[in-house]
Write a structure and sequence with these properties.
Structural class: alpha/beta
Order of helices and strands: EHEHEHEHEEEHEEHEHEHEHH
Distance between the termini: 30 Å
Low-confidence stretches: none
Shape: globular
Number of strands: 12
Number of domains: 1
CATH topology: Rossmann fold
Largest sheet: 3 strands, parallel
CATH superfamily: HUPs
Oligomer: single chain
Bound molecules: glutamic acid
């Protein structure tokens, strides 16, 4: 359990490109927040179409070059499908199959609505068209969604929250049931052909790795509410959260993997030292 236990943090990149300055910062924050505990690495490679072995190798090389050290063996999500399947089965009482495609969702939302469509951490807030379908009707191309209202009812709660160490020390961030339904909605637990989703995999793995402090960018702030409700449904401990600032380019845009010029290894090839990288991200 979090609290008395040793602090354990993780850096959890996806091997879909070279690590950039934003990743360097995230990894350094995770390592700092672990101190004097344990810093772990987790390879988030559930999206087999986008992940590549050479990027995974590059992650190890770049982090080692930066001077980081982590516990071995390294967890890889592609090795964890059985654990996700078990968790999905445990969530069956609060889940349903959904066959809506993006166009269906957009059309359903546009009908009663004028102007901007409601969007949450995963894009459009699902309008619930397939809610009520039973898992026995699931087709091979369906996704599995969490029935959020049913989940809140089953838990007997009307709000969900977490403690964030970075934004407001010691302050609990809370979302009511209605805010969750309106702003996040019935999130996907298992994507088409994937057997899991980012949210489900992260929750299962943070618990398996006994992570006590989840450090991640502020862009994932709302996702943390999703993770807390999944932790409650799966009876897993809720870690502390530390949402850190994002590294932006000169135009103020958040760095993404496609900004290849900002890749750590390109700075390195240009003669930068690990200390230069640390300084560039404000360490
Ligand atoms: N894999 C996620 C990413 O690359 C971060 C993992 C997490 O903090 O949940 O942004």
């Amino acid at each position: 359990m979090a609290g008395s236990a040793v602090r354990r943090t993780r850096f959890a990149p996806s091997p879909t490109g070279l690590l950039h300055l934003g990743h360097a910062y995230a990894a350094l924050v995770a390592e700092r927040e672990a101190s004097p505990g344990q810093f772990l690495l987790r390879i988030e490679d559930i999206d087999r179409d986008r992940c590549r072995a050479e990027y995974e190798t590059a992650i190890h090389e770049d982090l080692a070059w930066l001077g980081l050290d982590w516990q071995r063996p390294v967890m890889r999500q592609s090795d964890r499908m059985a654990a996700y399947r078990d968790a999905l089965a445990r969530l069956a009482p609060y889940s349903y199959p959904c066959r809506c495609r993006r166009g269906d969702i957009r059309a359903a939302l546009s009908a009663p609505q004028e102007g901007a469509l409601p969007a949450g951490p995963d894009g459009l807030v699902y309008p619930g068209t397939c809610r009520g379908r039973s898992l026995s009707e699931a087709g091979p191309d369906d996704v599995i969604r969490l029935d959020v209202a049913r989940a809140f009812d089953a838990l007997g709660i009307d709000r969900i929250g977490f403690r964030d160490g970075a934004i407001m020390p010691g302050h609990d961030h809370v979302l009511t049931r209605d805010q969750f339904l309106d702003g996040i909605g019935d999130v996907i637990l298992s994507r088409r052909g994937m057997g899991t989703s980012y949210h489900l995999a992260v929750v299962v793995d943070d618990a398996a790795q006994r992570i006590t402090v989840v450090t991640r960018g502020k862009d994932l702030f709302d996702s943390s509410y999703i993770h807390v409700i999944l932790q409650k449904l799966l009876q897993l401990p809720t870690p502390l959260y530390h949402h850190h600032r994002l590294i932006r380019d000169d135009a103020g845009k958040r760095l993404a993997k496609r900004d290849d010029a900002r890749a750590i290894r390109h700075y390195r090839e240009d003669g930068a030292t690990p200390q230069d990288i640390r300084r560039m991200v404000g360490f």
